[in-house]
Amino acid sequence: MEEHDVVIVGAGIAGLATAIALKRVGVKALVLEKSEGLRATGAAIGLHSNAWLALEALGVPHKLTTTTYPPLRKGNVKNIDTGATQQITFPQPDKHGHETRPIHRKALLEALAKELPVDTIRFSSKLESIANLQAEEGSSYAIIHMENGVSIKAKALIGCDGVHSVVARWLGLTTPVNSGRWAVRGLAIFPEGHGLDVDFQQFVTIGKKAGFAALNDKEVYWFLLGKSSKGEDIPHDPEMIKKEVISNFAKNFPTSYLRVVQHSDLSTVTWAPLLFRFPWDVILGNLSKGNITVAGDAMHPMTPDLGQGGCSALEDAVVLGRHIGNLIIKNKKLVAGDQVAEALERYVKERKWRVAKLIVGSYLAGWVQQDGSGWFMKFLRDSIFYRHFSRLISNDKQYDCGKLPCVS
After folding, report:
1. Which residues pair with 182 in a beta bridge?
2. At how many degrees (to 10) do helices 338-370 and 309-331 cross?
3. Start and end of every FAD-binding domain (predicted)?
4. Which of 81, 174, 198, 298 is disulfide-compatible with 165, CB 3.0–4.6 A?
5. Euclidean distance between CA atoms 49 and 238, whole angstroms
């Protein structure tokens, strides 16, 4: 049986960032990833100030803030039904110099992976089952059984294995629920330059929300969110998804949007239902049990309407690393047993209210922008949400998750 201090399940944003946080406090983790390589589902990700603060705490080089990924500065939100357009401006650099930037999701994963020793990530490693082992003198271990027959013993197990997390299911967390909406995402390539005069453009109509954001002068990230209809059959072939968007779902959208979709790199086009976990399940559920816990989407799946899924996963990593680091400072090493469980409980206590709030805010943002055609919903959407609510939620995007302790 193999033995490791910490095992992390999942090599997504949460898993890689958590491994870096642990490395910086003196713990080498083993990351188990069921895929054959780094996955970049979603094509791009918007990083807000809270994400950049977390990346700073992790000590990740600022390759992602170069001119390759310029910040978003301005944009428009257009109501397709009324023709009304709201101009929006993104926050100027905050006191730390951070701005909102859309970047390639794969670039973020690669930047995180490069910070880890080459033998940290074990690909093609699928988790089969989990067990707890109570050893002598109060020490407890997590035993992980893999599909290939390998068994691994760890002082702590952290599930960063996404929305359909095996670790979350073992903890007894409720299964994420379908929001009644779906999302199509893709990346458009313009070899000669896209020539767009705004950084961000969004379109809303009854039951749909779409938009695009320029990553650089040649690449544009686009998305389309819609409400699920009974019996609706969404294709999963990228070419069919693209065709369905252009000829059906977005056929009445402006030509600027259709032009972007038309230039899609088919390898980046995906469709998926939007799932989330009820906030009360996050607050009241077992986010940790003994020396086992979860982070990222495994803990707090949310709809993408605030763009905080990946950002909050980076926060998780720093907070978890801080609590384990403080434990190492106290004991000079990571000791299996009750103290690890207590550190994980402190991590959960710090995170659960923060992420529950983000789940609620994301759901409400999606509901206001896509549901209802009555005068009240139009008033709520156009006169209140875009003018006021967006300012309130900007505070969440300035959140500082703190620093990692200095462990000698």
Report:
1. 226, 273
2. 170
3. 4-359
4. 298
5. 33
Q: Which of 100, 112, 110 is nearest to 45 (CA)?
A: 100
Domain boundaries, the chain: 2-56+105-177+276-370
CB 234 within 8 A of CB 253: no
Q: Are 14 and 296 in contact (CB under 8 A)?
A: yes
**DSSP state letters, 314-331:** HHHHHHHHHHHHHHHHHH
Q: How far apart are CA 74 and CA 273, in angstroms?
A: 29
Residues in CB range of 290: below 8 A, 6 or more apart: 132, 140, 142, 341
- The angle at the Cα of 164, spanning 35 to 223, to the nearest 5 degrees, equals 80
Write down how long the chain is.
408
| Residue 143 and residue 130 in contact, taking contact as beta carbons nearer than 8 Å | yes
Q: In what helix (H) or strand (E) does residue 275 lie, and over which residues does it extend? A: strand 270-276
Pick the CATH number of 2-56+105-177+276-370 from 3.40.720.10, 3.50.50.60, 3.40.50.300, 3.30.950.10: 3.50.50.60
The ranges of the chain with pLDDT < 50 are 231
Phi/psi for 95 (5° steps) reads -65, -15
The distance from CA 370 to its chain's CA centroid, rounded to whole angstroms, is 21
Tokens of 305: 């309407």
pLDDT, tens digit, 9 for 90 and up, residues 123-170: 999 999 998 776 656 678 899 999 999 999 999 999 999 999 999 999
For residue 6, how many other CB atoms are within 10 A of its CB? 23
pLDDT, residue 17, reads 98
Least Cα distance to 57 among 90, 93, 24 occurs for 24
Distances 192 to 69, 85, 189, 198, 217 between C-alpha atoms, Å: 18, 29, 9, 17, 9
* Model pLDDT for residues 179-224, shown as the tens digit of each residue: 999 999 999 999 999 988 777 999 988 888 999 999 988 999 999 9
Residue 397: exposure state from Cβ atoms within 10 A (0-12, 13-18, ≥19): buried
Give the pTM.
0.92
Rounded CA gap, 380 and 382, in Å? 6
